[in-house]
Amino acid sequence: MARRGAREVTRKRDDADEDRPQRKEPTRGAPTNRRQVAWTRDDGRDEWADTPPKKRRAGTAAAPPKTRTPTPKPARPRARTRQPTQATQPPTGPSTTRALAALTNRTTLPPEVATEIRNAADVATSAQKERLVEQAEAAFTAYERGRSQDALRHIKQVVAETPSVAAVQELTGLAAYRSGRWREAARHLQTFGDMTDSTTHLPELMDCQRALRKPKKVAELWTELRQSSPDPDVLAEGRIVAAASLAETGDLNGAISMLATAGASKNLRNPAERHLRQWYVLGDLYERAGDIPRAREYFERVRRSVPDAYDVAERLRSLGPERRAGGPRRPARKTAH
Fold it and tell me: Is the Cα dihedral 78, 82, 87, 91 positive or negative?
């Protein structure tokens, strides 16, 4: 009886334990008081960062990456109000060096420039010379593809090691000009002109001096350009910059006269790019002078030739509807019968 009673008591106790919720035993080695860690997304955003991500302590959330505030770029010189200058597009004038002239048809460094770089770096080792050639090739390729700042970054060491190579000075000046570095561009373009006696890039040099607020220097360079009998495209660009410099000093009439008396006011059936640019400038100058009908006339010339050129459509809309001579017609009166 005692044994059967003991078995009955044991069975009832086991049944009660089964009805009671079981508690999981802690795993060996696991902390019993773990702090909850905030979840953070990590999908490879630091993979392309300039510096490797810092290691963080276990159990702490990753700090959000610091945002880099972009450095504001200086405003580009504007030889024409609301219209891009040469800084926003490749120079239209032909290059005096065959190497740079060939950039429009190739993306590799011309061999004659590579040879000049090797010969100019006479104190460098063979490996260093080839490294300079590679950097120059990267600069030429970047400039051809419109990446002026990359071109300037690649060519800086090359021009420092081989300052006697005219093509390197030329490319450095043009890359700096298109990057908005006016003083640097003026220095290298002036050096290139002194080395080659070329006036091809005088319009860019004039534009740099205009951006630096040196109208007297612009006038001196304009005189030098006119006396050199340059290519028509180069002369037209120089005239545009000279007229813009006069307009910025407050001489709007002088700026208009400089373009109009040189034939820019002629209406041509098949205008070239230089004609469109000068018409646009005249339209802008007339608008600033308050002569809205003349401004509309020149903007219309540009739009008739190239409908999507520059921002002529916007400029014409900003001038308002064209007013006809004699004013609007009045409705006829109705006569009573």
Answer: negative
- Measured CA to CA, the distance from residue 167 to residue 37 in angstroms comes to 60
Rounded to whole angstroms, the Cα distance separating 245 from 251 reads: 9
Q: 224, exposed or middle or buried, with CB in 10 Å at 0-12, 13-18, 19+?
A: middle
281-295 residue pLDDT tens: 999 999 999 999 999
> What is the distance between the alpha carbons of residues 185 and 163, in angstroms, rounded to a whole number?
14
Structural domains of the chain ordered from first start? 95-199 (1.25.40.10)
Coarse DSSP helix, strand, coil percentages of the chain, rounded to the nearest 5 percent: 55, 0, 45
Tell me the pTM: 0.65
| CA end-to-end span of the chain | 137
DSSP label at residue 83: B
pLDDT digits (tens, 9 = 90+) for 303-333: 999 998 999 999 999 998 876 655 555 555 6
Instruction: List CB contacts of 94: < 8 A, sequence separation 6 or more.
Output: 101, 200, 231, 233, 234
Asked if residue 336 has pLDDT above 70, the reply is no
